[in-house]
Structures are given as structure tokens and as C-alpha cells.
Amino acid sequence: MPMITAVSSSLAIEHLFLFQQICGEKYVFVDEEVLHHYSHDETEDLHFLPDVVIKPGNAEEISSILKICNQYKIPVTPRAAGTGLSGGALPHLGGVLLSVERLNKIINIDERNLQVVTEPGVITEVLQNAIKEKGLFYPPDPSSRGSCMIGGNIAENSGGPKAVKYGVVKDYVLNLEVVLPTGEIIWTGANVLKNATGYNLTQLIVGSEGTLGIVTKAVLRLIPLPKLDLLMLVPFKDPVDACAAVSAIFAAGFVPSAMEFMERDAIEWSMRFVNDCIVPMNDETQAHLLIEVDGNDIDVLMKEMEGISEIVMGFNAGDILFADDAQQKAELWKLRRRVGEAVKSHSVYKEEDTVVPRAELPVLLKGVKEIGKKYGFHSVCYGHAGDGNLHVNIIKGELSDEQWNGSLKQGIIEIFELVKSLGGTISGEHGIGLVQKDYLPIVFNPVQMRLMKSIKALFDPANILNAGKIFD
Amino acid sequence: MPMITAVSSSLAIEHLFLFQQICGEKYVFVDEEVLHHYSHDETEDLHFLPDVVIKPGNAEEISSILKICNQYKIPVTPRAAGTGLSGGALPHLGGVLLSVERLNKIINIDERNLQVVTEPGVITEVLQNAIKEKGLFYPPDPSSRGSCMIGGNIAENSGGPKAVKYGVVKDYVLNLEVVLPTGEIIWTGANVLKNATGYNLTQLIVGSEGTLGIVTKAVLRLIPLPKLDLLMLVPFKDPVDACAAVSAIFAAGFVPSAMEFMERDAIEWSMRFVNDCIVPMNDETQAHLLIEVDGNDIDVLMKEMEGISEIVMGFNAGDILFADDAQQKAELWKLRRRVGEAVKSHSVYKEEDTVVPRAELPVLLKGVKEIGKKYGFHSVCYGHAGDGNLHVNIIKGELSDEQWNGSLKQGIIEIFELVKSLGGTISGEHGIGLVQKDYLPIVFNPVQMRLMKSIKALFDPANILNAGKIFD
After folding, report:
1. B369 and B378 Cβ atoms separated by less than 8 Å
2. Could you give the angle at the alpha carbon of B176 between the alpha carbons of A247 and B73, nearest 5°?
3. 3-state helix, strand, coil in chain A (%, to 5)
4. What is the DSSP letter of B225?
5. Which residue does chain A place closest to B159, by CA atoms?
6. Taking CB atoms and an 8 Å cutoff, what residues of chain B touch A152?
7. pLDDT in tens, B318-364
8. Among the three residues B224, B243, B261, which one is the final residue of a domain in this structure?
């Protein structure tokens, strides 16, 4: 048995032996290198060492582990790929880090019923590609799709660029096999498109950030794969004009399959980071919309592109770049998808995942900039504008550590209060996790908080599963 | 004060005075005629007299009423239009029948954000038409849309013919104002298209059949209104062929905006009932599919119709009737929409709302007929085949009262066990309510039942709100 670096008060040697009996010795890790590897996700620069990392191989093993942890009140942090941005997979209480990475099988792509049954440890892009090979489509695709896993996507109710036309993860989850914190294994619903049978346990689990149970199988709805898409990049002098164009496009009856907003810094930093895609950019350009339409008829798509072009021209757009071919499309998408990493590599930052009704985007963007001026911070904004989902990246830049860890918090509170006043909320797709939970009372009053905490207590009476995430 | 016909053990005269103070005397009813009117919904021939009918005018009044009922443990049955088919609005415990019919305002159709804010007492078709006038679309449309109310649709997570392309009620509800059984008024979410902020209370309320709270305002997502649609009626000699054609159409990449199945009896009885629409019907025809496609480009729709026609021909379809004009479309839809009433007027019946993965429909239909032979009952089947949602109407016909109230139950259990074995469940859109609750343990084990009952207890500790619905 390897050396143990740290054992929390509730986790003892005999528990480790039990875990080894359940999963086999080679899937229970206490060596420092592994603990370090699982001490962080993609949230800022936060690290917390778990006491042990366990990689069970199936739902029954997870059930046995949770029964022990439930009995001895050992904290358990479930983890899929660890690409989250709100600290949901951070083992901040030590204890067990439970990785679902070995549950990585696509169990069945059911072409007759347009459904897939998958385990949670499948990489999202791997799942999407396997489905695409059958001429089918699973639309939710976070920017991290190449590395994130479907289990994490379900935990966070992830979105991505296609959500604007096709919806988010919750719109595709039909049924889940879940191990409850007390160890029972249940299915939450049925493999059907409509269900009016009891309470919607499925939608209670989706987006619950691993606090109510660990998903071990998911039945997802699929749709036919659209055969064609067209992509254009539209520059604007005024970012507020870009935001205003967004709701005008929908109001005119168009439903693009992507409608992404990027401030100049976002695309510039991404070009520097990616280093092999160049978008010609006028000095005056301050923001872009990346707009995609998809479908099965080229004439219809061309007409839609024309119609959308006319609308953006009414908002002082510059020269539109129409992607010529698959390669140029891929390059533009690469630029967009890697903005997050580019910002991260550029500076220490905090990312806020604001979401408002889409026509309120211009007000939100102006407000964020004014609040930035007041508190002395620079922000780089980008995101899924069609959904009203604006990622506000606050850059540390010249801010002192004192400002960064002190007065900035008040600025973030002001942003969230603005978001709330516009009918929005504080996370569109990243979740609350560890780093946003102090802000939750801005959008929920004590009655709502009490209901949610009571639901947590009902599923997890010993408070072992991802405790201290979403709320204390 | 009018004469009181019956007062349950927990409801006393002084409570009636309190209700009068809250809502005004004229909105508190104890006269027999009113009590009788609210003693039934559209479920079989069931009647239960409430002790009092109250028609509050806003959320605050509902809150005050519920606080009193919570304190004195008075049963409360919430009711919208009373068109439900599972007995959700039946006041089977007496007490207060709380009608939301006075909360009947469309508060705001927000054309900028493609959202509507509405009260629960608005008739679904009235809401749809008001939205349509703005060039927008709210798709969920139960067959009873001319008389049902949006609050009831939310309580039951209703579907309707358009669900196959556009989804059910839950896919359009963004945020709800809800009065909890304890009297607090909360909003469940935010007015946004994506939300990863805490547990999904919105989806817990949708489909909870009025057991967790009373919805007093709903924020619903809207989409652009498709400009065109085409409709065809396809006859089949073998109903099983019709069912098999359904999944083949989707597997070929088509997504019709309606895909309805009707056995011969259904359409014949409906023609007799409606009495002004005649569909030519070959003697050999035993079932029909009513198939609609919609969109904005006539060439695309024509191509889709051609493609679908080719597929159905592979399943021994007869001569397809293409609807010529708006009038013929309206007639065909009228026939389909009134099947339920036609069956009801024809015989005493029980309606089962089975739903399975769509490719399992042929197996389900065959199974239903075999079980019918075994137990000696005739069934008329129709429904939303594209969703795998088959309404099985069991006709009393020649069955003795003894059989009807006795051995038939075992036949229904066999149908539901078949449904479960196919990955389906016992209600697609009608809910469990009062009349299906005995069957719920077929699809949920004790762990799932315990979770649901605990959620109920958490929201409604005194068990006053629609108690004894869904489960005991």
C-alpha cells in the first residue's frame, strides 16, 4: 500500500482498505502525484488536495463506496473530466475524490428510437462523433467538448454555441441512472419523449452539480443531423450595436444555429493564442458576431444569411466575412472556442457567467463596462449572445491583490444585481459550484434557499456528496 | 350567506368567513349548483362534492387562503379549467376547491425577448391566438385547447400534436410564480433560456399536478411562427404497419410537425360525432396516420411530403389524401381533436395514456390487442405516434360491471407492465392524478416513491394541497 499523504479526520486507513476491496487496489490512489492531479479543475487557480482518489468501474462499486462514506460521514467529490469553471469538482473538504473516468462506454446508439445510452465518462466530442457517424446529432457542445465529459455536462446543465437553436443538456436528457448519496441506485424516469408520471426527478438531477447523486448512465435524445451550415463573422464598431442586432435577428423570425458575441480583445487574444488563424480586422472594429445557420436546403440557408446580413447592416456592421469552406469555418470556430483559454493564458482573471433575456444584452454590456470603470477593472466579454448568455472575464491586470481580493467583490455583486434586475440570473451554463455560492442570495430569497437546501438534505441526509457546493 | 350543503370535518363556518374576508363574499360559493359544477372534471364519470368553491383574484389572496388551510389542515384542490383526464382536479377529500379562473390575464407578450408572461386561468387557445397575432408561436396544444387553461397544462406537463417537433409544456416554461402550500409566494427561476443556478425548481413544479404549489404567473418561451404547413392523411390496412412507418419516417431524417395515429374506430366515431366532416374510407382501412410538416419554404415542405409519402408506401399505405386548403386541414384536425369526446359519447370507457420509445409502438399496439382478447375488452387506440404516446381507450361495451370494476384492472396492469418492459411509462401527458395512482408502483420502486413523497412532504408539510393525487 503506498504512503498516505493526508487523511482527513473522518477518513481512516480501514476505509481505504474497504475501498480497495470494492474497486481493486489499483484503482485507489493516495500517492501525491495523483492527489495533486485531481486537486484542481479549470476554475481560476484553485487547488485542494483530496485524501484519496478512487476510480470505480461501475454503478455497483460507486454504490458500495457511497454507503461507506454515508455511514462514516466521509466527504465525496464526484468528478468527470474536471473542466468545470465554477469549482464543482474541487475536493475542498478533502476526503474521497470519486472519478467516473472509467465509466467511459457508449452503451448503445439506438438508431430506431433516436436515443443514445452512455456512461458519464465519455468525452463529449467522442460521443458526438460516434453519433454523427450514424447521421444523428447530439447538439450540446461546450467549448471544452474535446476534453469535457458527458457526466460533467449533465451535472452543470451545459450549453455551448448550438443551444440557441437546439437547447441545452437538459433538453436532451430523457432518463438517468443515478447512485444516491445513501447508495441506492435508481432510474429517474423513462426512455420517452413525453412523461407526465410523477415528479421530474430527471430534471432535478440535471444541473444539480453532483450534489444529489452520481450519474452512472444517461439516456439522451438525438435528432437528425442537419446536412449543411453557413457561417459568417460580422464586425461592429460599437459592441452595444452588436448586442442590439442579436434580438433584432430573432425578432425578424430567424433562428440561427449559433449566435456568438466576442469583444475585440477576446478575438485578438485568441488569435495570438491559437497563432495560426488570422482574421482581418479593421482598427475601428470593437466586437464581432459569429453567426451560423444550418439545415438541409442550401437555398433556404442562403436566403437566411441574406436576411440576417440586411438586419446587421441596420446596426452599423462592417464588412461581413463569409466563411468560404470547411477549413475557414473550422478556423473561425477554433478562434471562438479557445477564447476562454486565451484569456486565462493572458492574465489572472475571474469569469462571470451572466445570463439575461436576450434583448437586455446591450443594457447588460453597458452596465458591466460602467461598473468596471467604477471599480477600476478591465473586462473581456464574449459568449452565447443568442441565449443572452454573456461571459464576463474580469482581468486582474493592474489591480492590486488587495483590490482583487477585496473591493472587486462589490463590483461583481453590482453586476449580478444588474443581471437580476433585467430578469436574468448569475449562471447560464457554468454552475454555482464553489466560487459563486456567496452570490446565490442575490437571486434567491430565504424561502427558495430553504427549499433547495431541504431537497439536498432529503437526497443526502449525511451531507457527504459534494457538500459545500451551490450553498453551504 | 347561502346554505351550506356539506362541511368536512376540518372545515368550519369560521373558516368560510375568513375566506370571504380574503376574496370578498361573492367569490366564496357554497350553493349546491356551484359545488356540483366543480365536483367533476373530464375523467370518466367521477364526481366528488367540495365543501366550498373559492375563486380568488390574485396570488396574495391564494396565499392567505393556503395559510388558513395549512393551519387548520383543510384539504385544497386547485383547479384551472377542469378538462383533465386523470382526476387531478377532483375534490375527492371535500374541503376547498380553489379555482384560478379569475387569474385570466395575459400580462405581457414580450416581442423583443420572445417571451410571454401569463396568468394560469387563460384558455390555451386564447393565449395561442394572441401570440399568433404577433407572428409568434407557443406550440403546446392539447386537443382540449379551446377549453383547457394554461395553468392546468403546466400542472400536467401537457403535450398535444405539435410536441413531436416542438416539445411539450416543460420545454416552454422558463419561470413560474408559485404559491406554496404554506402560503409563501416564490419565483422558481429566471426569465432566461439557459440556467445553471441552483436546483431546477421550475421543472419540479411543471407536471407536479397541483400537489407542490399553485402557479399564479408563468413566463413562457416563444418561437417564430412557421408560415406554412402541409397535411396528409395516410390509410393503412394494418394498424401495426402504420405504427412501424412512424419510426421509419424519423429514422430517414424527417421531423414532421405532427404525426398522429388513429385506429379505424377512432376516426369513424369522430366522423359520426362531429357530423360535418367526411373522410372517404376504404373498407379495408384499419388505421390512419395524420402527418403534418411545417416551415417557411414551400419547396422544402413539398420535398418532405414526397419523401414521407415514399416511406409510407413501403409500409403498405393506401391512397394518401393531401389536404387541399385551409378548410380541409381544419376538418381533418377537427376529426382528430374530437376523437376523445367521440369515444366518450359512444360508451363508458377508461383511457390509458401509454408512452414508449417510438419504435416500440408496433409491439405496444399488438400487445394491447392481445391483452384485450385475454380479458375480453375492446380498445380504441389513437394518439401522438411520433412521440410514442398511444391513448388506449378501453370500451365498456358488453363487459359486465363485475368485469369492468374487477378483472379489467389486471388487464390494465398487464398493459402497463408491457409499457415498462419497452422502456416506456404509464402517462405521457395526462398525469397520474387520482385514477392512475394505484398503478404507479409498476414503474417506480420504493426508493423512487420515497423520494417523491419526501419532496411532497417538504413542500407541503400539512399535506393539504391536492393530497392523495399521484400517490397516497
Report:
1. no
2. 175
3. 40, 20, 40
4. P
5. A194
6. none
7. 999 999 899 999 999 999 999 989 988 888 899 999 999 999 999 99
8. B224
Domain count of the fold of chain B: 4
For residues B349 and B351, give the distance between their C-alpha atoms in angstroms, rounded to a whole number: 7
In a 13 Å sphere around the CA of A216, the CA atoms on its Cβ side amount to: 21
Q: Strand pairing of A28-29 and A389-395?
A: unpaired
Tell me if B124 is assigned to some domain: yes
In a mutational test of the B interface, the residue from A451, A453, A458, A460 whose CB has the highest number of chain B CBs within 10 Å is A451
Q: Is B137 helix (H, G, I), strand (E, B) or coil?
A: strand
ipTM of the complex: 0.96
CATH number at residue A183: 3.30.465.10
For A:168-187, CB contacts with B below 8 A are 168, 170-171, 180, 184, 186-187
Give the nearest partner residue to B200 out of A203, A384, A459, using CB atoms. Answer: A203
Residues spanned by the domain of A442: 347-448
State the DSSP H helix or E strand holding residue B141, giving kind and residue range, or none if neither: none
A154, three cell numbers: 449533465
3-state secondary structure of B192: coil
Q: Which residues are A262's β-sheet partners?
A: A288, A382
**Closest residue of B to A431, CA-based?**
B196
Condensed to tens digits (0 to 9), the pLDDT of residues A62-87 reads 999 999 999 999 999 999 999 999 99
- The helix/strand/coil state of A107 is strand
Alpha carbon distance B422, B420 (integer Å): 5
B436/chain A closest Cα distance in angstroms: 9
Cβ burial of B215 (10 Å; 0-12, 13-18, 19+) is: buried
- Cα distances (angstroms) measured from residue B27 to each of A238, B30, B63: 55, 10, 15
* Domain finish residue from A52, A74, A99: A99
Q: What pTM does this model have? A: 0.96
Residue A379 has phi, psi (to 5 degrees) of: -125, 145
B160 in contact with A, Cβ within 8 Å? no
Q: How many CA atoms lie within 13 A of B190 on its CB side?
A: 32
Closest alpha carbon to B73 in B347, B470, B469, B465: B465
